[in-house]
Amino acid sequence: MTKISDEWMMITAGNEANGFNTMTASWGQLGALWADNKGRPTAIMYIRPQRFTKEFVDREDYFTLSFFGKEYKRQLAYIGTHSGRDEDKIAKMELTPAFDMNTTYFKEADLVLICRKLYAAPIVPEGFVDKSIIDSMYPERDFHTMYVGEIEKVLVKE
Predict the structure, then answer these.
(1) What's CA 78's distance to the chain center, in Å?
(2) For residues 52 and 40, is the Cβ–Cβ distance under 8 A?
(3) Band of residue 7 on the pLDDT scale cut at 50, 70, 90
(4) Contact call for residues 62 and 102 (beta carbons, < 8 A)
């Protein structure tokens, strides 16, 4: 779990032909879901409505989750606090996009999960049993959309 919560990941969608965008995230889950007996390998991630990357995830069938070594923490922090609407943050952070399965990942990543989008649904206030989470995490009421993707390919840096 520290791979996501402490080291962070980049969520990326889009491709070379139609453009792509990425964001840093520290919320998500990996598991097994929706298949006989063992379940499909899945990744779940969350994106707020104002994030530029959401437009790409909504539009595309695939997204990637890229995990980096600790030496990339500065780049991930920058990417998480700047919008691709305003600048080419990938070039500024000197990351190298790569393309596979009609989606985008980064050559510098140690681990990449290429996921096919299976499900998307907004987080809604009515679903919270612990209502205190709403005020602490959503003071602007900008609830995330949850995305479930089937992990179709795993890339590991050698």
Answers:
(1) 15
(2) no
(3) confident
(4) yes
The answer to pTM > 0.70 is yes
Q: How confident is the model over 19-74, as pLDDT tens digits?
A: 999 999 999 999 999 987 788 999 999 999 999 999 999 999 999 999 999 999 99
β-bridge mates for residue 149, sequence order: 43, 117
Those residues whose C-beta lies under 8 Å from the C-beta of residue 77, and which sit 6 or more positions away, are 24
DSSP codes joined into one string, 80-143: HHS-TTTS-HHHHTT--EEEETTEEEETT-SEEEEEEEEEEEE--GGG-SSTHHHHHH-TT--P
34 in Cβ contact with 42 (< 8 Å): yes
**Sign of the C-alpha dihedral, residues 44, 124, 24, 86?**
positive
Cβ(146)–Cβ(120) under 8 Å? yes
Q: Identify the DSSP state of 71.
A: G
Cβ contact 113:43 at 8 Å: yes
Cα separation of 72 and 111, whole Å? 13
